[in-house]
Write the structure tokens for this entry.
Amino acid sequence: MISSTVRKKLSTGEAIVCAKACYADAEIVEMIGQAGYDCVWICLEHRRLGEIVVKSMIRSSLNSGCDCMIRVKPRDHTDLAYLLESGARGVMLPQAQDLAEVQAVVEMMKFPPMGRRGLDPIHSDANLGDVSLEMYVNHENENTFLIVQIETPEILPHIDAIAAMPGVDMLFVGLGDLSANLGLLGQLDHPQLKDVVQKTGEACKRHGKAGAINSSNPEEREMLWRQGYRFFNVASDFRYIRKGLDDSLRAARQITCG
């Protein structure tokens, strides 16, 4: 069955390094895994990808040895089962509004007694039906993870309660959306946002969970580590392609004819 690198590293207190695959290309996903990342992030919140495309990207992550985490659509969690059955190990919940929504996602992800996930043990996550039901259920409950995004004003009073909730593994502070939702668009260093980052890290440490965040700065990650953050999204295919194109064009424009 499909084990989770992320869950294993969470249990040992190690840093988890993630890269986001913005484009619907299974080879990019495979490249991210081959490079040694622990997790690849695929977004269905801002992308409308067909089921076959998503499955091929999940399979590519598995083939290259890294976990696949899917950010699902806000307040539309009907697709969780097929994503997990295809081999995705993680679900990211965006734009969370309240505790009831988080609890509902936990119940859809986990089999009884932890939740109410429907049982259909014939897919990739069950070795295509070649394992006992008991082994399958226990393994899946131990090898799937949930990341709740902290990015709306409504969720801020519930940070501690979410961190304490069984079935929640990480709290991801989404600074971009949070800044916009608080009327601080792009002011990622604003004291109000820094306070959320700190409180989220403290809540995670208090309840044995992990903070998660975007961070491309090594010095910043050292500070975040001390605050309780263990999951770092550090790269994306879009950023590297964009930077490569810009740098190449800038260099080419400097050519002078003698």
Remarks:
- The two ends are 64 Å apart (CA to CA).
- Residues 5 and 67 are 6 Å apart (CA to CA).
- Strands lie at 16-21, 39-43, 67-71, 90-93, 145-150, 170-173, 210-214, 229-236.
